[in-house]
Amino acid sequence: MRKTVPHFLLSCLCLLAVESYSQTIYVTPLGNDQNPGTLQKPLATLTGARNRARLLRRQKTLTKPIEIVVRKGEYMMTEPLVLSAEDSGSETAPLVFKGEAGSTPVFYGGMRLGKFEKVQNWLWKVDIPEVRRYGYQFEQLYVNGQRATRAQAPNDGFYQPKAVTETVLNKGTGRSPEFAAQKITVPVESMAWLSKLSDAELNKTVVTFYHNWDNTRKPILSVSPADTAIYIAGEGMKPWNKITNQSLFVIENLQAAMDAPGEWFLDKSGTLYYRPRPGETIANTTCFAPGNEKFVIIKGDEKTGKRVSNVRFENLSFQIAGYRMSPFGVEPEQAAARVDATIQLDFADNVSIVNCEIAHTGGSGIWFRRACANGKVQQCYLHDLGASGVKIGETIIRPDSSELTHHITVDNNIMRSGGHVFPCAVALIIFNGRDNALTHNEIADFRYSGISVGWVWGYAFSPSKRNRVEFNHIHHLGWGVLSDMGGVYTLGVSEGTVVSNNVIHHIYAFDYGGWGLYTDEGSTDIVMENNLVYACKSSGFHQHYGKDNVIRNNIFADNIKAQLQATRVEPHRSFSFTNNIVYFNSGTLLSSRWDQVDLVSDQNCYWDTRARQGLTFGKQAAPDWQQKGKDQHSIVADPGFVNPEAFDFRLANTEVAQKIGFKPFDYSQAGVYGTLAWKNKARLDSAVAQEFDEMVAQHEKK
User: Where is the GH141-like insertion domain (predicted)?
Assistant: First the structure.
């Protein structure tokens, strides 16, 4: 008689076979990394899922995606997810980490603190034993989904130094000293916080200086009450951007200064003190302290050049990450260039981050750094960031050109509220990189520039070519704390780079700067067209120095100090300025040396609503300006905007525009696209916009 396999046993064998070779791996908050990762026996962590995916790849050649499905819930990440070249998928079988449909699982890179207890109505505390036992320290705190303020003075605004002197201890060979000490004479009111501190307390106190486009963060080494001075040390000040009596500063991590709602202080015993905000109760308060600085590290093989390839993240939220300052402080660096990101990639090809959230960080959000190509960040929400939103490329130029990062697409993202730890950070920046596309992004509420492209100062070789900055909405930047910034900022020789169809407005610097479009040192062969720029402090367009840039078919309207600015006079064609509409009701038309640089200017429309007769170009009347060959076919006329007082710059009719060859463009297309919910999420809170307007009004009164 022939023996047969019992039906139930056959079914079990089939199920085991499916489980062994299933290409869907499940993760849940109550899973276990010893499980096989099936729906019935899920894993607990992304690292466990990565290990399971490695096992599947070793068992057979895959022709379909490996999908790591993260089920709804909250996950505590005790370490970052690390992917290497062996985790690569293929074009037909990528490795996919995704939240299950209908939910967005949340990964926290920190610890949820225990329940607060009341010290007084205005003061709470919670014990953190890990501080005593393991030396656990953190410099950011997040309460009820908001960044809290480590106790600082002043609560609002800044102090300013009275004087700054430097003693060089080791000159070295560079442009700035290798080691020096600085004596900062400070206002008497700031000294009151410091004079009674012990040395141990003093050395944990941090002073952050805002000087032009940089920040310097240092521990205070010593205080001299007799001189009303503090001392800091480290690298010597940069001669091109020193701390001066025109700089700003705040003092942080002072328990005595914990006098405002939302402030906190952690003492060495492990007790965290917090002053609740209005409406917060102990019962309704959730508090997180960061542990990790990164959520995901993707790094291929530097020696062989083998990349991590074909990996995708979808529908995941990463929240709570920290930054801890070195005991020696942080030296100034433009754009906080070296500050790491929570998702950091090197030697990576075809890695996508889609429909994800990154929030409440100490550093930057995402960085496609060395040797990355064909990456994508799309429809992601990055907010409450310590530094930048997205960074592309390196700050150095490698001898091997194949290691240059290229073809990164950053499209349809919201980047809002950043630079909280490093105010000098740029929201979206390309250092050295080519053929990248920055499109349809919503960028608002940062303290420095919105988008920056290029990292070579002057006319030396730059690898940054053919980058596209298009259809972005960039606004409410600067906040009057730093200078020398732009909505879109460029550097270096940049053939093929295009900046078009962006809407840029409400850019306000502390001192000089606060431009809409800003071609800085050596910017060359850049086309800027079809942009709407309004309500910027210094001017709508400014070229510091550069060559053969094309500025055409833009609208510059209602900028505060001036509309157009050019600074350095050079023995070559600096730029052409044609077919633009310039409309204003404050400040001057031109600033600096616009009337002296070598430029082509023609077929533009100019209109000053205050002086309908006798428009001047610098110190020259229009006929004199035209006699020099400038704007010979331009006109002085009201362009006929629908409602410029309400920032509605649509043309009621195109009669005037046609006279100068201006081609109307639909500026409403700038910013994010998609569902109504996504567009609504991109809208800036009206209270934030009002606060910005009040800040501008206060500065303009001075």
Answer: 123-277
Instruction: Indicate the helix (H) or strand (E) that contains 21.
Output: helix 7-21
Distances 634 to 612, 625, 639, 657 between C-alpha atoms, Å: 15, 11, 12, 11
CA distances (Å), origin 267, targets 115, 132, 134, 256, 263: 17, 10, 14, 12, 14
Structural tokens at position 128: 């953190």
Number of C-beta neighbours around residue 320 at 10 A? 27
Please state, in angstroms and rounded to a whole number, the distance separating the CA atoms of residues 129 and 566: 58
Query: Residue 514: CB partners within 8 Å, gap ≥ 6?
Result: 478, 483, 485, 507, 508, 536, 537, 538
Q: Nearest 5°: phi and psi at 329?
A: 90, -170
DSSP 248-304: EEEEES-GGG--STTEEEE-TTSEEEE-PPTT--STT--EEEE--S-SEEEE--TTT
Are the CB atoms for 139 and 151 separated by under 8 Å?
no
Tokens representing 510?
């502390």
Phi and psi torsions of 566, nearest 5°: -140, 140
The structural domains of the chain, with segments of one domain joined by +, span: 110-151+258-288, 163-256
User: Could you tell me if 555 and 579 are in contact, meaning their C-beta atoms sit under 8 angstroms apart?
Assistant: no
Q: What residue has token string 């073809």? A: 407
Contact 413, 378 (CB under 8 A): yes
**What H or E segment, with its residue span, contains residue 649?**
strand 648-651
Provide the pairing of β-strand 493-500 with 523-529.
Answer: parallel
Long-range contacts: 644-647, Cβ < 8 Å, 24+?
A: 644/557, 644/558, 644/583, 647/505, 647/534, 647/535, 647/558
Spacing of C-alpha 632 from chain mean position: 42
Q: Helix 46-59 to helix 7-21 angle, to the nearest 10 degrees? A: 110
**Kind and range of the H or E run holding 532:** strand 532-536
What is the CATH number assigned to the segment(s) 163-256?
2.60.40
User: Which residues share a beta bridge with 123?
Assistant: 120
CA separation for the pair 272, 283 (Å, rounded): 17
* Among the listed residues 98, 130, 141, 82, the one whose alpha carbon sits nearest the alpha carbon of residue 321: 141
- Say what the pTM is: 0.95
Averages of pLDDT over each 10 residues, the chain, 702 residues: 44 39 87 97 98 94 95 97 97 97 96 96 96 94 98 96 97 95 96 87 94 97 94 96 97 95 96 97 97 98 96 98 96 97 98 98 98 98 98 98 98 98 98 98 98 98 98 98 98 98 98 97 98 98 98 98 98 98 96 96 96 80 91 96 97 96 98 98 98 97 86
**Among 200, 234, 217, 203, residue whose Cα is nearest residue 387:** 217
Looking at the chain, the number of H-run helices and the number of E-run strands are: 9, 65
Whether the upstream peptide bond of residue 623 has omega within 30° of 0, thus cis, is no
